[in-house]
Every structure is written in structure tokens, then in C-alpha cells.
Write a structure and sequence with these properties.
With about 250 residues, the chain is α+β, with helices and mostly antiparallel strands. The chain is built from nine helices and ten strands. The protein has a four-stranded antiparallel sheet.
């Protein structure tokens, strides 16, 4: 797994992440650099809704979560968007995205006009192949989340999510040499992503800390025993790379 160098420019991080799905020609990278328009800094807890004419939107820095609000006021978080990710894939169909997402940290988005992106993919098919593979990965993450909700215990769900985030952020160059990364989510938000109450999330985090598997300080996760976490949660990064994950029998 080749990571983006630490301190990488946010646009370069996106290009590096996209090229992990499909190698991009130097000309394709240059065209994307010119096409991306950096937006203003968005404050935490800013809700964003799907647009009638969806552009291509990528998260350059910060953190965002897709969510669905239920009639009883409860919120389910379905997807975590990390730097270097597409914010959503509504632009692939050209229809209004029904996805809502919210920032949980100061965030910056980059934008490419849908028509311009379409022209780029015609000129450089590798861009579309990479984009489709990124969309397939998001679908695979959703399937894995369903498996967690249906089959994994609370501690296994949390361990699996931490392993997944470690892998995704490592590719983006956002994991420190001590296996630490920023996790700008409250325990309530983690619960909304994992189908757990805030109290249950707190107890589960404390259990991992007592075993010295992870540490938590200042919004940062420090993984002390990655091997234990991957074994505990049966984490297999195959679904993040396009390879078929191996399932224990």
C-alpha cells in the first residue's frame, strides 16, 4: 500500500487516491488539477444536500458523513467521507443526489463541473475507470457495514471501523508513524454509524483502552496493537482494494 507523502497538497492527495484505483496518465492528472476549483472552508456541522445539477465534489480536507434522518428524529450515518474521497457519486447518473452529508470538522471541498468532468473522461478513459472503481469501493464499504450491523458484536464493529479508517487514511498519507490518526467524530456520531448507543460506544472504547489496544487523546486515535484489532474484527482490506475478501469459515 503506497501512501501519499505526509504534507501532500489536498488536490494532490485526491489525485494520488484516485490513481490507486486506476493508473492515471500525467496528462490526465494535469487536466484534473486544472479542472478542480477549491471551495471555501466549511465549518463543522454544516449540512450539505444533493444538488439538482450535481457537480463532481471531492473532500480535500476535513471530514464528512452521509446521513439519513428518520421521522422520529434519529440520525443514521451510512458513510464516512475522508480526505481524498469523492463526496458522493450523484454525478455519475446526472440526476439529483438524494444523499445528505454533514461536516464534522472544518472542511474544504473541491468541485469540477459535471460537463467538464464528462469531457475529461472522454479524453482520458482512465479517469472514468478510476471513478467507477471508487464508487464500487463505496458500495463495498456499505456492504461491510451491513455485515457489522448484522453479525459483529459491539467491540468487533468498532475494531473493524478503526481498521478500515486506518487503511483508508494510510493511503491518503494521514496516518502518523505511530499509527495515529485524527478521528473528528463524537461518541454519539460513532454510535450513529455503528448502530450503538453513546453509552455502549463509551464502554467499548474503554474496553479497548484498558487492554492497551488503542489510545484516545485530543480527537486522535493511537493504535497500539493493529494485529490484535484486525484479528478481533476479522478485518480484510480486500473490499477496499477490489480483491475478494477472505471470509473465515
Amino acid at each position: 500500500m503506497l501512501s501519499a507523502p505526509p504534507g501532500t497538497d489536498p488536490v494532490e492527495r485526491f489525485l494520488h487516491r484516485l490513481a490507486k484505483f486506476e493508473p492515471l496518465e500525467a496528462e490526465a492528472r494535469d487536466a484534473l488539477r486544472r479542472a478542480i476549483v477549491r471551495g471555501p472552508l466549511v465549518p463543522p456541522y454544516q449540512e450539505v444536500h444533493g444538488e439538482s445539477v450535481p457537480d463532481v465534489v471531492v473532500l480535500l480536507s476535513g471530514w464528512a458523513c452521509h446521513f439519513q434522518m428518520l421521522g422520529n428524529g434519529k440520525r443514521q450515518i451510512s458513510t464516512l467521507v475522508v480526505p481524498g474521497d469523492f463526496a458522493d457519486f450523484g454525478f455519475l447518473t446526472g440526476s439529483a443526489a438524494d444523499i445528505q452529508y454533514v461536516t464534522t470538522a472544518p472542511s474544504q471541498f473541491g468541485r469540477i463541473r459535471a460537463r467538464q468532468f464528462s469531457e475529461l473522461t472522454e479524453q482520458f478513459p482512465s479517469i472514468m475507470r478510476a471513478t467507477l472503481k471508487a464508487a464500487a469501493m463505496e458500495t463495498a464499504i456499505g456492504r461491510e457495514r451491513l455485515i457489522s450491523l448484522g453479525l459483529r458484536t459491539a467491540i468487533e464493529r468498532l475494531a473493524h471501523l478503526i481498521c478500515e479508517l486506518w487503511w483508508r487514511l494510510s493511503v491518503a498519507g494521514l496516518v502518523g508513524p505511530d499509527n495515529s490518526f485524527h478521528l473528528p467524530m463524537t461518541q454519539a456520531e460513532l454510535g450513529a454509524a455503528l448502530g450503538l448507543s453513546t453509552v455502549h460506544v463509551n464502554r467499548t472504547l474503554q474496553a479497548l483502552r484498558r487492554r492497551d489496544i488503542i489510545g484516545l487523546q485530543g480527537g486522535k486515535v493511537h493504535i497500539h496493537d493493529l494485529k490484535y484489532l484486525t484479528t478481533l474484527s476479522s478485518f480484510d482490506a480486500g473490499y477496499l482494494t477490489g480483491a475478494a475478501p477472505s471470509r473465515a469459515t
